[in-house]
Amino acid sequence: MTRLAVVGAGIMGANHVRIAASMRDAELVYVVDPDLERARRAAHTHGAEAVTTLDAIIGHVDGAIVATPSPSHVELVVPLLRAGIHVLVEKPIATTEADAELMIEVASTEGRVLMVGHVERFNPAVLELDRLVRDVVHIDASRLSPYSPRITDDVVTDLMIHDLDIVRALAGAEVADVVATARRVRSDSADLACALLTFSNGVTANVTASRIGQQKVRELRITQSDSFVNVDLVRMDVTINRVEHSEFLSEAGASYRQTGMVEIPFLEFRGEPLALEHLEFLRAIAANRTARVSGEDGLEALRLVKRVLRASGESD
C-alpha cells in the first residue's frame, strides 16, 4: 500500500482526498492544511489525520498530492521531494519557469516521481487518442465556460493550459511560432483568448479558451491525412469520420460517388479522469518510472502559457 497525504484542503484538495481514499492500492494517511478545521472536514470521513504542517507527514508517507494555489507549489514540493516523497502537483506546475526547473532538478537528484496534474490528459477520450492519432495535420481545441468570479487567474493559465498541454502531446514536436489575441470582458485579466500554434513538424493548432460563454464546452477536432477525429471531453466520446470515393459507369459515362463513414471506437479506459490520474501516479511510484505527465511536461505547458500571454499582449 502506498501511503499518501493530500496537501491543501480547498475545493480541488477535497476532490483529491475523495479519490485518494478510494484507491485500492493506496492509503490516505494525512490531510495537510494551515486551517486545521478545514483539514479536519476533508479528512474525518476517510479515516485520515488532519495536520497543519509538512513536518508532521515527513517520514510517514510515500507520496503527496499538492493541491494548493500555484504560488505556493515550489515551497511545498521541493521540501517533500528532498524528504524522499513522490509528488503529484496540481497544474500549473509553478508560477515561474525557474521554480518549475528547480522542482524538476530536485526530483531528478532525489530519484523521486514528479507528476503534474493536467487531469484532461487522463480523460478516457484523450487516452484513446494514443492509438487513433497517427498523422496529424491540424488541431482545433475549444474550452468554453460560464464566468465565475471565484477564479482569479487569466483564462490562459486557468483553462487554455489544458489544451496547450494536449495539443503539444498530440503534435509530437516543439512549438515554432505563436500568434495570439485576448480580451478582457468581465475581469482585470484575459477572459477570452485565441492562439494559433505552428509546430516544428508543420502541424498547426487553433486553441480557444473563454470564461464568458453560456455553456460548458470541451472539444478537440483533429484533422489527419485520412480522417477527422472529433472528441467531446465532457461526454467522453470519440467519433472518426472518413470519406471514400468510388468510380462507376452509367449511361452518362464515368461518375463518382462519395461515401462518408463514421466510426465510434470502444474506449479502452473508463472512469473518472482524476481517479485515472491517481492510478498513474501510483503506478509510476511502484515502477519507479516517469509519469505520463512529467515535471518536464508541466514546465513546457507553463512555457507555452507564457508565450501565448506575451503574444496576446497580456504579459511583458
Notes on the structure:
The chain has helices at 11-22, 36-43, 73-82, 97-110, 124-132, 155-171, 273-287, 295-311, and strands at residues 2-7, 26-32, 49-51, 63-66, 86-90, 114-117, 136-144, 175-183, 192-199, 204-210, 217-224, 228-232, 237-250, 253-263. By secondary structure, it is an alpha/beta fold. Strand 9 and strand 10 form a beta hairpin. Helix 4 (97-110) packs antiparallel against helix 8 and helix 6 packs across helix 8 (295-311). The model has no long low-confidence stretch (mean pLDDT 94).
Descriptive terms for the model:
316 residues; alpha/beta; Rossmann fold; Dihydrodipicolinate Reductase, domain 2; 8-stranded mixed sheet; 14 strands; globular
Compact description:
Strand 12 and strand 13 (about 235-250) form a beta hairpin.
